[in-house]
Amino acid sequence: MRAGTLLLLGTIAAASAGCAALDHMMCTPNCRTQVRNSSSLVSYLYPEGAPPPAQDSVPELHVPLRVGLAFLPSRGGSGVAQLDEAHKEMLLERIRERFASRKFVSEIVIIPDYYLESSRGFEGLAGVQRLYSVDLMALVSYDQVIYTSDTKASLTYLTILGAYFIPGSVNDTTTLVDLAVVDSPTRSLVLRAGGTDTNQHSTTLIDMSRETRHDSSASFDAATNKMIDHFDTALLAFEQQVHEGKARVHVVARDGAHGGGAGAWSAGEIAGGIMLLVLARLRRGGWRVEPARRITSAGWSSPDCE
Predict the structure, then answer these.
(1) Over the chain, what is the mean pLDDT?
(2) pTM (2 decimals)?
(3) Cα 199 to chain centroid, rounded
(4) What is the distance between the alpha carbons of residues 204 and 61, in angstroms, rounded to a whole number?
């Protein structure tokens, strides 16, 4: 009689929790399940599996830049780990707001990821760039893994009390969000940065699906915030390298003036060089400085003429 009561309680609890909970109850004690959802920059740019070649050309960046911003298409995933389109748009908007005010950026254009699904590789990416008339593509990729395991307490609540009272499962969520700026014509990676997040907490069987969805969403938010901070730091370092002529890029203003990078001179550096040259010639007596003159009704006069 007692065994029948326990079986009934277990069945009712499973029915209340839904099919996912029923599957979980059939798992052996201390079992562990995994749900994964990801996109990959390397898999997208090199769909045939060939390794990235060594860079043999230098990107030329015409500032201010018009940049396309998009999530890379997902490689799959299921259920609670899926990053929905509304959440993607919210994260992209957060990235755009952070970097849209940079002086070398004229506009950041958010591009839906379905434009990138039909054609992969640098050729497909170049087609998207032409379609949106952008100079560079900023591509967001991610990898999230959610582990769910039973704790010892779960045995008690599954066999005696049901699914409502004792927390019995642990969700362990790990997320990586990466932002890479790519120049399609030269097939070059201009800049990248990533952010990670890990969280873990216990949940009841009845709340497992809801809590897992919450953990997944919160982990994407946290990892994106860290990625934005890291990208901001990397961008400041990149700007300094461009100013010093150490960056592997040519920066050219829209009017054709060089702005720095890979040996190019900035406008400030050119002006400074001219000033140094003038001072050097004056010190050597190479140029004679004439006293200033003013114009009178009678014509030109020297400063000490009355």
Answers:
(1) 75
(2) 0.70
(3) 20
(4) 53
